[in-house]
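User: Can you recover a sequence for this backbone? Please restate the input before giving your answer.

Assistant: Of course. Working from this structure:
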């Protein structure tokens, strides 16, 4: 799912985007915002893959807001004014949508977003993954990963030897992990199922450097976790 936030000061424009997003199975609407301040809070509170951002807004424009973001998600700019297109592309936006936006045009933009999300700086082979950390690619074996923790703009991979910190989203790394070995159990945690010692209510236990590490299990993730635990016969 592409986690999406939409921003527009026009209620009708917001409703159009909401309707389109509701019709697409690969999109999840996290927040609908009327201005840059609301959008800023939404980005702080959620892990966002895509920002649909209107250019013409009061107080601060969409482009001005985009320039304030240190590590923005992928961006689709929307506006009725074509003169902003060049500046938008200089900011590496995925696409520039002219209002009124048709469903066909929106779908084409989302296809571009999916292609961009697929191109990450993470490279995978059968038993390990290379992640970019400290200006180099570091090899991390799947069997050594205990769990993965999201922290704002960074992902912390905890393994038998310590940790590896990489600048990317949880979603991008999650997509590169073997689905039969790793599972998302919380908005901020992915665990190696083979490393789970026990599951108790809304917590699970993993042994990290000889001590018990308690990891929260979100209510939306528990059923899928228990199904995998049953298959693995932990």
């Amino acid at each position: 799912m592409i986690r999406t936030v939409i921003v527009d000061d026009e209620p009708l424009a917001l409703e159009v985007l909401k309707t389109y997003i509701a019709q697409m199975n690969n999109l999840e609407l996290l927040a609908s915002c009327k201005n840059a301040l609301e959008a800023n809070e939404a980005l702080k509170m959620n892990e966002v893959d895509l920002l649909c951002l209107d250019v013409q807004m009061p107080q601060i424009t969409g482009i001005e807001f985009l320039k304030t973001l240190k590590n923005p998600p992928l961006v689709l700019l929307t506006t009725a004014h074509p003169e902003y297109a060049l500046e938008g592309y200089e900011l590496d936006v995925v696409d520039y949508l002219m209002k009124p936006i048709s469903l066909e045009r929106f779908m084409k933009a989302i296809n571009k977003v999916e292609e961009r999300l697929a191109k990450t700086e993470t490279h995978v082979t059968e038993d390990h993954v290379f992640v970019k950390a400290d200006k180099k690619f570091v090899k991390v074996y799947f069997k050594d990963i205990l769990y993965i923790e999201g922290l704002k703009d960074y992902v912390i991979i905890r393994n038998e030897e310590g940790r590896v910190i990489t600048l990317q989203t949880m979603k991008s790394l999650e997509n590169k992990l073997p689905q039969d070995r790793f599972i998302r159990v919380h908005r901020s945690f992915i665990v190696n199922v083979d490393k789970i010692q026990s599951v108790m209510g809304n917590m699970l236990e993993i042994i990290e450097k000889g001590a018990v590490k308690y990891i929260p299990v979100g209510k939306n993730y528990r059923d899928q976790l228990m199904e995998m635990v049953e298959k693995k016969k932990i």
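That completes the design. The first strand starts at residue 2 and ends at 7.
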